[in-house]
Amino acid sequence: MQTPAKRSVIKTIIAVAALLVLSFGSVVQAELEIEITRGRESATPIAIIPFDWQSTQPQSETDVAKVIGDDLARSGLFRTVREADLIERPNSFSDIRFGTWRLLDVNYLLIGRIKDQAPAYSVEFELYDIASEQRVAGYALPVRAGALRDAAHQVADLVYEALTGTPGAFSTRIAYVTASQTADGLRYRLEVADADGYRPRSIVESREPLLSPAWSPDGRQLAYVSFESGNSSVYLQEIATGSRSRIASHKGINGAPAFSPDGKQLALALSKTGNLEIYVMDLGTGGLRQLTNHWGIDTEPVWTDDGQSVIFTSDRGGKPQLYQVAINSGTPRRITREGDYNARATIAPGKGLIAMAHGVGNVYRIAVLNTETGLLQIVSDGTLDESPSFAPNGSMILYASREGMQGVLSAVSADGRVRQRLILSGGDVREPAWSPLPRR
Amino acid sequence: MTVRMKLMILMVAVLTLAACKSKEPRVTEPVDQQPTERVDTQPAETFPWTGKPDTDPAHLDNPDSPLAQRIVYFDFDRSDLKAEYRDMVRAHSAFAAANPNYQVTLEGHADERGTREYNLGLGERRAHTIRDLMRAQGVGMNQIDSVSLGEERPVAMCHEEACWWKNRRVEIVYTKN
User: Is there a contact between B118 and A211 if contact means CB atoms under 8 Å apart?
Assistant: First the structure.
């Protein structure tokens, strides 16, 4: 199971290790802290027993049960029992006294153990339904040395999927841009971290603005906009190796890259003709095809799930609104109606939900449009919220907001019920982009 | 009947008056806080004392010359030139047309509201407004470049109009060849 994912995990770890050697200080400083600012009352209680360390190797610093518990709690769907309240600590089915957990009003119990097994460990776990006393899920995951944190996220993904029917997105990563003041001016960094904010590393550093990171569907590359040459240019960069190429640096604006679902094409916004239009670049040949042709500002393309059309921002109707156009032909069709300002769409794969930056007067919030019902719901509560990015399982939306003079990242569940803040010490954070699900 | 008619007329009059009253302060209220003293009241043609446009590069940083003003401000989500900047742009067009060895770069900017990529587009459109006008006023096609920095390079940092208006701008930058 999961050989490609594992391979990329190993690559990431090597790269992280290399970076730790190079710039330990900055990595520590950039660590994110996550705070749940609004929870859900109906969250399902789950007890997670500390995993039994049965390996002969020295015990890892990674607390697997804690990583799993934090992941599940962050989803807003689960409430974990505090460690101090775990009055019994069973490690196998025969040790479980279901009556105890029933008394504690716990719905589910997760137990597990870490054993020696090639390549380094085996992480085994079983999930039990307290009411029925049945096993809901159980797996043994082979884990490489140093990859227990990744294994813990995988366990959280599997538990989430077993209990909600939707694959978890805890093994994913996020990319974002930070701007921090240094002795010689502002320094911009494009960073990549685990979805829980751990293990951040900077993949590009520049004195000029960086923006609009976009993940390739295999999670190996990021496209982004950099002003390092004085004007905007679009770059494509391999995350693990750092190798990169400049793929668009025409006269005028080069912005808003977005990979097609098959990863073979890139939609982007260029103003090389003198007016900002949407183009599609064939990443194999580099060939460009113009998709829109209008005097208005056309930008921020995103692909629909089927790769057959693009949703973009245009002010052709007077104010910025979202439009959809087929890749092969057609007239753009307006898809947003409410509000003065609707821009920067992000799509929840397979869910028919489109989130966007939604402005009314001077207040900008994140709104979710249900394309089936046509209903628009405002899900954030800031005044300058922007850059929404859906988790690849459609459960949460990551976005940029402002707190005083500092930019912070926030996340909200797609239904607006659970909100959390990701705090990065000493820097202005913006432009988040949630990675695709790792390929299994 | 007539009393009621009179009453109705009176009510209509009162309502109209009220409507006028409620509208009036809105008109006189500053829409944004751009200082009017930025506008050069002296027509460019009469500066400095010759009755001709000021085309002397030495005057670029002379505060008495209209050429010292090199920032054009815009309304929110707008890129049309406001009337008070017409003379300023005309003065720069005259200068640039007379000094083809000066390259003009128009840097377009936006305030923080709205999305970053859309604001790149907006900054470019503002720069193009000035570019097109300067070309129409005789500046060489290849003498003007424009670049958009969107909301990435604000000059004022707060989350209200007191800062926003300063950031919605086009900066006219000269480079001597």
Answer: no
